[in-house]
Amino acid sequence: MPRSVALPVLTMRWEQLAMVHWRYEAEVVQRLLPRGLLVDRFEDRAWVSLTPFRMASVRGLGVVPLPPAAFPETNLRTYVRLPDGRSGLWFLSLDVTAPYLLAARAFGVRYRLARLSLRQDGADTFYAGRRRGAEDVGYRLRVRAGAPVEESSPLDDWLTSRWAAFSRRAGRLWLTPVRHEPWKLRRGAVVELRQTLTRSTGLPDPEPSPLVHVSPGVGPVRLGPPRPVF
């Protein structure tokens, strides 16, 4: 894991997380990326992941508590790199219930307000969301947790070990460093899924059999200050 973030802009916990991963043709995803970012590939395919979770214990500068104490978030992300090889995440969409996160738009982080819910019932976790002002954009997901990932595969590591997020603002790319302990992962299975998030971003509908990870969470997560990519 890369070195820690000494002076975080935000710290938080990510809890009750699911990652539903789909393979795509790399050229399909590349068309959605800004200039300067290249689609990252695993065995010549791009990947896109639907990732709902609960955000908790958010603190500005790692010190100042930011209410509410916990709230759901859902993102649709893909995996990218710079020409110099630095890799990270590009968010195709970010839905959240906490209005103060809209301030991140100043650095091109495109949060949108949504009605989101999360509920756990034994081995199953239910997630649902509907974007405000775009009622046809949303999802309903039920995931069942399976066995712990005792020995991660190269693909498991490639999908879950990302230490930067990219955004674009004022014609420039920005990089936000992200640091946390490794995920405690379990295998997962989709019991129910209906979603229009991929289509709303310009992607075709995904394949019917995704790879799924679930995790009880990780934290503290430390986000460093965004910096321009030169």
Characterise the protein shown here.
The protein is globular and about 45 Å long. With 230 residues, it is mainly β. It has helices spanning 26-30, 154-160, 197-200; strands at 10-24, 38-39, 46-60, 64-65, 70-81, 87-96, 111-121, 124-131, 134-148, 164-169, 172-179, 186-195, 211-223, 227-228. Strands 1, 2, 3, 4, 5, 6, 7, 8, 9, 10, 11, 12, 13 and 14 form a 14-stranded mixed sheet that branches. It has a single domain, classed as Acetoacetate decarboxylase-like (Beta Barrel). The protein contains 3 helices and 14 strands.
Low-confidence runs of at least 5 consecutive residues:
none
Distance between the termini: 23 Å
Radius of gyration: 17 Å
SSE succession: EHEEEEEEEEHEEEHEE
- CATH architecture classification name: Beta Barrel
Total helical segments: 3
Please report the first level of CATH classification, the CATH class.
Mainly Beta
**How many distinct folded domains?**
1
Look at the helices and sheets and give the structural class.
mainly beta
Share of residues in strands:
over 45%
CATH topology call: Acetoacetate decarboxylase-like
